Amino acid sequence: VQLQASGGGSVQAGGSLRLSCTGTGGLHMIKTWGWYRQAPGKQREWVASIDTYDDRATYAESVKGRFTISRDNGDDRKFLQLGALTPEDTGVYYCHTEGWNGREHWGQGTLVTVSS
After folding, report:
1. Rounded CA gap, 42 and 22, in Å?
2. Residues 6+ apart with CB under 8 A from 3
3. Fewer CB under 10 Å: which end of the chain, C or N?
4. What number of CA atoms fall less than 13 Å from residue 16's CA on the CB side?
């Protein structure tokens, strides 16, 4: 599985962005799509996930109600809609997948910068 993330950028607090993750190769093996982020000087943290078999979405408490994870009908692209952004949301956002065999894959990351 190869993942390509895009859609990052610079916004002011209160703004929104839409991140995309496009996957190629072996997509039928994916059980869960997810997003992680890493703020400057901090560890990478989980943000949201969506299961491929029932579309159940889960979110970190810090983004619940502000971010929405979704997929397109073709199953090769996932989105993370970011809303009501704050400077604490600044970081590199990574697309992630977990396969039915437990294997994980990561995209290259896309930078989100929120200014106050």
Report:
1. 26
2. 21, 22, 23, 95, 96, 97, 105, 106, 107, 108
3. C
4. 10
Q: What is the pLDDT of residue 92?
A: 98
Structure tokens at 71: 């997929």
Position 70: which residue type? S
3-state secondary structure 45-82: EEEEEEECCCCCEEECCCCCCCEEEEECCCCCEEEEEE
Q: Which amino acid belongs to residue 55? A: D
- Identity of the amino acid at 111: L
52-84 pLDDT tens trace: 889 899 999 999 999 999 987 666 889 999 999
